Amino acid sequence: MGIIIGSKTRITNLEDRVFKLEAIDRVTLIREQFKAFEQFKERFERLEASISLSSDHLPKVPDTMPPKIAEQRPGKAESSKSSKASKKTSKKHYHTVNVGETLYGISLKYGLTVKNIQLMNKLNDRFVIYPGQKLLVTI
To answer: Contact, 101 vs 54, CB < 8 A?
Structure first.
């Protein structure tokens, strides 16, 4: 009978140890999840700061809309020859990329599409612009 009581005590002790080990395992898992969450939070905060900096460079939307072309005062009609000559004499204009600028922001600034800027500068869809880079924005 003494062996059975001793065995029950040992089993109870072993069960307690297993329970404590399981609790430690759960705490370890929670710590790992917490660390992963902290890393996600830091990445999110960096992304948020980057977006905030980028939005500072976006052009401001005017409060009033510009007048329609039809409402403007008509001027002298230009001949097609003079418009061709002005296109030939126009100079190329480059934009120097600043920190935080995007192709989209630059396209808004010059009234172009992102695709037009990519075509003029022979950039593919995956090309990343960088500060100090000069991009052709008018021909």
So the answer is: yes
Distance CA 25, CA 15 (A): 15
* Per-residue pLDDT at 38: 92
- Tens-digit pLDDT profile for residues 64-106: 555 555 455 555 544 445 445 445 556 889 999 998 899 889 9
Helix/strand/coil (H/E/C) assignment for every residue in the chain? CHHHHHHHHHHHHHHHHHHHHHHHHHHHHHHHHHHHHHHHHHHHHHHHHHHHHHHHCCCCCCCCCCCCHHHCCCCCCCCHHHHHHHHHHCCCEEEECCCCCCHHHHHHHHCCCHHHHHHHCCCCCCCCCCCCCEEEEEC
- 87-138 topology per CATH: Membrane-bound Lytic Murein Transglycosylase D; Chain A (3.10.350)
**Amino acid present at 33:** Q
Pairing of strands 93-96, 134-138: antiparallel
